[in-house]
Amino acid sequence: MSDVWTVYLAGEIHSDWRSEVVTACEGMSLRFTGPVTDHQASDDCGVRILGEEANPFWHDRKGAGVNGIRTRRQIEAADVVVARFGEKYRQWNTAFDAGHAVALGKPLITLHPSDHDHALKEIDAAAAAVCRTPDQVSRILRYVVAGS
Fold this sequence. Notes:
The protein has 6 helices and 5 strands. The protein is an alpha/beta fold. It has a domain at 5-36 and 77-146: Rossmann fold. A 5-stranded parallel β-sheet has the order 2-1-3-4-5, with helices on both faces. α1 (17-24) runs parallel beside α6. The longest helix is centred in the middle third of the chain and has 22 residues, at 56-77. The chain is globular, with a radius of gyration of 16 Å.
C-alpha cells in the first residue's frame, strides 16, 4: 500500500454519511472514491450516452454497464472498502460491491443499523468490522492508517 490510502465508499446515496466520514478523517493520508451519488445521473448515464431505450430493463442494463466500469475500477484500486446499507432502498448493489471487494481480498467495513444484522449476516461475517455510525468508520480508519 502507498502512503496515501484509498477508501472506496460504497452504498446508499440518500444521506450524508460520506461527508461525515470524510470530514472526520480530515488531515489523514486518505483519498476517498465512490459511485456517482446523483441518483438520476447514475440511473440515466447509459441511455444518455448510448441511446434511449423504451424497455426499462435495457435502460437499467445500459446504466449498470457504464456505472460498472467506474465501480470495478475504483474497488480494485481501493485499499479499504466501506459498504453502507441504508434504510430507504434495498441495497443489492451495495451487497454486490461488498462481495466484489471481499473476492479481491480488500478489507471490508460494513456500516448499517442493527435491524439489518440478520439480513446482512453473511456479508458482516466477511467484513473486518461492522459499524453502526460514520464516526466508528472514521475512528477505524484513523487507527489503521495512523495507529492512533
